[in-house]
């Protein structure tokens, strides 16, 4: 009797142990992987000044080796223990920002989360009051320098236009936006691209006004007032996200000012546009409304995207710039050097257009003294309607 009583008890205990084991395995198999939550600021918030970014890992019992905090694609903090917080200066203006937190877990894949803040929106009229022409003159492979003002003649719709301002290669100041793709497709090439971008920035003239931008599916203005600051900003860039090339081109145009200087944009991307809200036609209209010379460097997927490649070539040519499609990182260095040489061999001419409408007006520049190749923007067209969230060109 006693033996029979013990036997069922022993059998029940074994079955119970097996049942608990099955439940534990099932629970572990169904458990979601660890995730990062950004507690502050919330998605869609408006921020400015010093912002405290707070994050946590779920479940709370998850071990974390470190958390890295990024503000607009720049690493700003590395935190190794709780509380996972980071103070960041988001700037005085209420602008759009992307805040990303990446948690590195022992022996596992990183977990990440991103929130996006908003900028204050407003509308603005666009009025064309003066046309700026950046002109390159070549004799074969040689840039032609030291030409006098009297050597240039400007025509709009075949009608001569008085030249109001003339700047030679050495006199004309340069405003330049340099935009760098930091989307996820850049992960393998990012270190080499950083080196080449820093070499390019270091090769510009000391007096050149340079605005540095990073972009993926968002647009990040990297504030820096000198070369050392710009190089430091480049070092902090990290790749993630998709690519919004069209949106970046539109936003970059808005960063260029109204002073009588040469305007230029250098945009590097290695991915086809996968995230833009802007349409192709809007990019072309905005480019035609700007006096900036556009240099587009496309690598990787851009080369295989026939439609996007054609758009890049068309935008660059109409602006008086060039599109480059280097096949390797090594060729990219030579591309940056070619752009540097061209930026060092430009003239600036301005004239007041005879009318201000939304029609396309063809521009032609003639240079006397030789059979030269003359490159400049092909025409102008006022931007249609109004915009929001940026500055009008007012050019």
Give descriptors for this structure.
alpha+beta, 8 helices, 395 residues, 32% strand, six-stranded mixed β-sheet, disordered N terminus, Rossmann fold
SSE diagram, text form:
Blueprint lengths: L1 H29 L4 E6 L9 E9 L7 E6 L2 E6 L4 E6 L7 E8 L6 E7 L5 E2 L6 E9 L2 E2 L8 E5 L2 E3 L3 E3 L6 E8 L8 H13 L6 E7 L3 E4 L4 H9 L9 H9 L8 E8 L10 H10 L3 E6 L2 H4 L1 H14 L2 E3 L4 H15 L3 E5 L9 E7 L5 E3 L3 E2 L6 E2 L7
Parallel strand pairs: 14-15, 14-17, 17-18, 18-19
Antiparallel strand pairs: 1-2, 2-5, 3-4, 3-6, 6-7, 8-24, 9-10, 9-20, 9-22, 11-12, 11-21, 13-20, 15-16, 21-23
Helix pairs in contact: 2-3, 2-8, 4-5, 5-7
Explain this structure to me?
The protein is an alpha+beta fold and about 400 residues long. It folds into two domains: about 35-115, Immunoglobulin-like, CATH 2.60.40; about 130-390, von Willebrand factor, type A domain (Rossmann fold), CATH 3.40.50. Helix content is about 25%, strand content about 30%. It has eight helices and 24 strands. Strands 16-15-14-17-18-19 form a six-stranded mixed beta sheet. Strands 9, 10, 13, 20 and 22 form a five-stranded antiparallel beta sheet that branches. Strands 4-3-6-7 form a four-stranded antiparallel beta sheet. It is elongated, with a radius of gyration of 28 Å.
In short:
The chain has 395 residues and is of the alpha+beta class. It is built from 8 helices and 24 strands.
Question: Which class do the helix and strand fractions yield?
Answer: alpha+beta
Poorly predicted parts: 1-29, 122-126, 385-395
Number of helices: 8
Biggest beta sheet summary: 6 strands, mixed
How helix-rich are the residues, as a percent range? 25-40%
Considering the protein shown, what is the CATH homologous superfamily of the largest domain? von Willebrand factor, type A domain
User: On the 0-100 scale, what is the average pLDDT?
Assistant: 85
- Apparent shape: elongated
The CATH level-2 architecture of the largest domain is identified as 3-Layer(aba) Sandwich
Oligomer state of the chains in this structure: single chain
End-to-end gap: 103 Å
Strand % is 25-35%
As a whole number of angstroms, the C-alpha radius of gyration is 28 Å
Number of strands: 24
CATH fold category name of the largest domain: Rossmann fold
How many separate structural domains? 2
* CATH C-level name of the largest domain: Alpha Beta
* Main sheet: strand order: 16-15-14-17-18-19
């Amino acid at each position: 009797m006693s033996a029979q009583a013990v036997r069922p008890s022993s059998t029940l205990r074994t079955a119970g142990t097996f049942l608990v084991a099955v439940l534990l395995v099932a629970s572990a198999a169904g458990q979601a992987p660890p995730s990062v939550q950004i507690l502050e600021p919330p998605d869609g918030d408006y921020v400015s000044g010093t912002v405290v970014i707070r994050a946590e890992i779920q479940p709370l019992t998850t071990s974390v080796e470190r958390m890295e905090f990024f503000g607009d694609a720049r690493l700003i903090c590395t935190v190794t223990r709780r509380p996972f917080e980071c103070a960041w200066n988001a700037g005085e203006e209420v602008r759009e920002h992307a805040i990303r937190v990446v948690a590195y877990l022992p022996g596992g894949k990183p977990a990440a989360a991103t929130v996006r803040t908003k900028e204050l929106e407003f509308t603005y009229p666009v009025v064309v009051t003066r046309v700026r022409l950046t002109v390159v003159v070549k004799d074969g492979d040689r840039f032609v320098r030291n030409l006098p003002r009297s050597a240039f003649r400007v025509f709009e719709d075949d009608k001569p236009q008085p030249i109001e301002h003339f700047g030679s290669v050495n006199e004309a100041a340069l405003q330049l936006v340099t935009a760098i793709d930091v989307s996820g497709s850049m992960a393998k090439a990012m270190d080499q691209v950083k080196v080449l971008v820093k070499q390019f920035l270091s090769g510009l003239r000391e007096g050149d006004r340079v605005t540095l931008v990073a972009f993926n599916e968002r647009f990040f203005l990297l504030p820096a007032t000198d070369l050392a600051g710009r190089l430091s900003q480049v070092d902090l860039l990290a790749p993630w996200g998709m690519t919004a090339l069209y949106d970046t081109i539109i936003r970059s145009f808005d960063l260029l000012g109204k002073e009588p200087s040469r305007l230029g944009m250098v945009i590097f991307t290695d991915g086809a546009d996968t995230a833009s809200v802007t349409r192709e036609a809007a990019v072309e209209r905005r480019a035609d409304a700007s006096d900036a010379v556009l240099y587009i460097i496309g690598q990787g997927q851009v080369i295989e995207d026939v439609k996007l490649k054609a758009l890049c070539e068309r935008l660059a040519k109409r602006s008086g710039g060039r599109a480059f499609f280097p096949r390797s990182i090594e060729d990219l260095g030579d591309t940056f050097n070619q752009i540097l040489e061209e930026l060092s061999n430009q003239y600036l001419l301005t004239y007041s257009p005879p009318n201000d409408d939304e029609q396309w007006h063809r521009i032609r520049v003639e240079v006397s003294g030789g059979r030269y190749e003359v490159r400049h923007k092909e025409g102008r067209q006022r931007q249609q309607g109004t915009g929001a969230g940026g500055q009008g060109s007012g050019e």
